[in-house]
Automatic annotation (TrEMBL):
Pfam families named among the record's database cross-references: FAD_binding_3
Protein species of origin: Oryza glaberrima (African rice)
SUPFAM superfamilies, per the entry: FAD/NAD(P)-binding domain
NAD recorded as keyword: no
One function term, GO molecular function aspect: monooxygenase activity
InterPro entries registered for this protein in UniProt: FAD-bd (IPR002938), FAD/NAD-bd_sf (IPR036188), MOase (IPR044560)
Keywords from the named record: Monooxygenase, Oxidoreductase
Family: Belongs to the 3-hydroxybenzoate 6-hydroxylase family.
All residue ranges annotated as the FAD-binding domain in the record: 27-244
Oxidoreductase keyword on record: yes
Name listed for the protein in its UniProt record: FAD-binding domain-containing protein
Amino acid sequence: MAHATSLNEQGKRGPNEMLCVRRDWLLRALEEELPEGTIRYSSKIVEIEEDGDAKILHLADGAILRAKVVIGCDGVNSVVAKWLGLAKPSYSGRLATRGLACYPGGHGFDPKFKMFFGHGFRLGVIPCNDTDVYWFFTWSPSEHDDDALAKKKQFVLTKLRSAEIPAEVMEVVERSEAKDVLTAPLRFRPPLSLLLASISKGNVCVAGDALHPMTPDLGQGGCAALEDGVVLARCLGDAILGGGGGGAESERIEAGLREYARIRRWRSAELIGTAYVVGFMQESSNAVISFLRDNWLAGALVRKLLKMADYDCGKL
């Protein structure tokens, strides 16, 4: 049987608040703040060349760009991170299935984040608004789970039925359309590798998943990327406007990126390491760890989750 825990009204516990934001809506809102034509799609970097203070970027669509600054936000398989020499992300040994259920007439769920821990899995459910409910299911696959990537939703439902999950939660998974259900392996960059890594080199740096790919156990991947953006904008703004000291602009940019790397290095390593440990504890099928988690550690893990989210990266 699954063990459940939840946060109270509005996802609050003391000064904390937990909200669910659809990523496509967030990206659309950010895009609308940029001049038209700023974003190029289908433009993956395939090669980076150096030309003095500039970088020459060869894109998958055949285009070639000359860049004064290169900020790699190209995800867990980042070409820019590889160019910088960052360690390749490792497989965590777990998989995640994520879905979105739509209730056109309203779902009726309280604004709470609910988690259920079963034998080797974790299920989370949280409303996005009055009509959409987001859910995730993470687990450690066995040799009998080879078809999990193909069956997706049916695989999750089978696991949940054996754990006596409440009917209204089961309905969230059942209601999800196949196009809104995705399954993928969970990977992370070894946190210790970041402590000595080159997060920036010259006028090149990385941010978001390209910097700190992590397991989703803290729900902080997207939030950390936004933190990166604020710190990076502040450091680059000071450099370009001359607030970062004397010297040529290229030298100030390099110094600004080094400062960004200094600020984000420890935060990134801590997030990755904490997410991995929290996920391991929550999904462990070991009898001793499961007993401690269900009877003593559930509240501590939730408090740790909230503590990691309670971070001030400063203002622009």
